[in-house]
């Protein structure tokens, strides 16, 4: 990007606005792409009275961040419990998909039916079970069920504007994922023991003599708490729901045994929604208007600033290069100052070149993985119906991108006069993944202690280690070998044998000040999108606006490159040639703001008070910040390196 702007010179502002127009056109296309849906599975056609299986996924709470499997609580169980075979992503997410005893048949109504233990023998919760149930209700747990791979949702209706309530009685409808296990009223716990399922079907077009076929397109639930005495049930397991006004809720007293009935009803409605669009309800829960505003705002600000920065840098550079290349006045040349003075030291290898090249290799690995995942997801190929597909794809892509990470790390290590390529390759393959695995293992031990389904099972951990050492490590070695054998990067000037003395630097050239200054622009371009990503991760929301995310990623790359070039230019003008590590650190400055934002989000948006959930939040946040720093630091480093090579190639050096 910066290369285009440099070559265009004074026309860079015009180029920026042309690029802005094209990006806005791309944005219009991406908006449609958000609803484009490539089904992960084939649609299932049902005939009348065909069984529609209801499965349970897990229990989740944004207050504890610890998922539990469905039968960790004393719900009604079928005669034989069968768990679905899961992919890597589902296991890492804590999903444990299992069958349930709900009997639901296509387009067959059920007024009220007892789920298990007929009326003459209600379910009895022991004191320990009652305590556990009350604890989960207090922790605000949600139950997640699926029918035909479609997650259950609770409908929430409210008036958008109370002043206009009298003028129009139309309610805004939003959907909440799953349903609440129960509710707290004062110091009393109440369990949602009756579920009213509302399933919507779409009638498929068939020929006249064929039996009509149906497809499930929406799955809603209305949870209710109804006391045992108010559920009038007969010997056949049928029940009668009481009047809404006269019913008492089912209390769970954690100090004694509790008797209750689990009941459910089924209602079917025809819908115009087609099967391919059935996920739209779940994917349009976020406010798209905010996304539009944030993206357009980011695009305008970033490219306007990019245009200004480019013009300033280009004009200054042209003036510098013109002055440096004058050979008429020898006295002026003797008194020259600025970035040309450090030409004999600017490509001097830094300290710890192996660690620097290893971190940059991991950054390249992350960059390739994120770019491909976002692009593929934007095209709709990682649909939410394929549970865990996003995480599985990300894990495998990171492993296979090791060949690119190794190649770039090996070539840079050779350029920095490194010789121990085998040790460098091992460092690249193990430094960043080792830190990630170590933090995840420690956090996993705490999750194991809580008996949560979010704990990664030991066989899965062994499988991940086998992927790391069986796929990623050999590929990194392969890439490193070819990168190290390739010609090193061609630096345009020779390095002096004796290092030049660095003058005393001003206060604003301090590293930490540089990190604060450099991080503002990239973070400002993406922080609204960060809110939606955090909501998806920590509040169990679906995130599927990958069209927006792809554009934000492009903006992030451009802004990181621009700010890195500006910062390295100022540093070289101050005659400080130690730019290698500094550029890498300063370019990742927006990661510092991500950390600050994560603390703000924890304090203001989440209701986490216990130690282990807090530890999980900050542990995973540390991994996100580290990965983001590697990503942005790598982008900024390579942009600055290209810039430095260009400007020193443009001046005449004696």
Q: What do these coordinates show?
A:
The protein has helices at residues 2-8, 12-35, 88-93, 127-138, 280-283, 288-324, 330-334, 353-378, 389-400, 402-415, 421-449, 458-485, 511-538, 546-573, 580-587, 590-604, 611-650; strands at 54-60, 98-99, 110-114, 123-125, 142-147, 150-151, 153-158, 172-177, 179-180, 182-185, 188-191, 194-203, 214-224, 232-233, 239-240, 251-252, 258-260, 263-270. With 654 residues, it is α+β, with helices and mostly antiparallel strands. The chain has two domains: 50-160 and 171-284, no CATH class; 288-317 and 337-494 and 515-650, no CATH class. β5 and β6 (150-151) form a beta hairpin. α10 (402-415) crosses α11. The longest helix is centred in the last third of the chain and has 40 residues, at 611-650. The model is unreliable at 1-40 (pLDDT under 50).
Explain briefly what this protein structure is.
The protein has 17 helices and 18 strands. The chain is α+β, with helices and mostly antiparallel strands and 654 residues long.
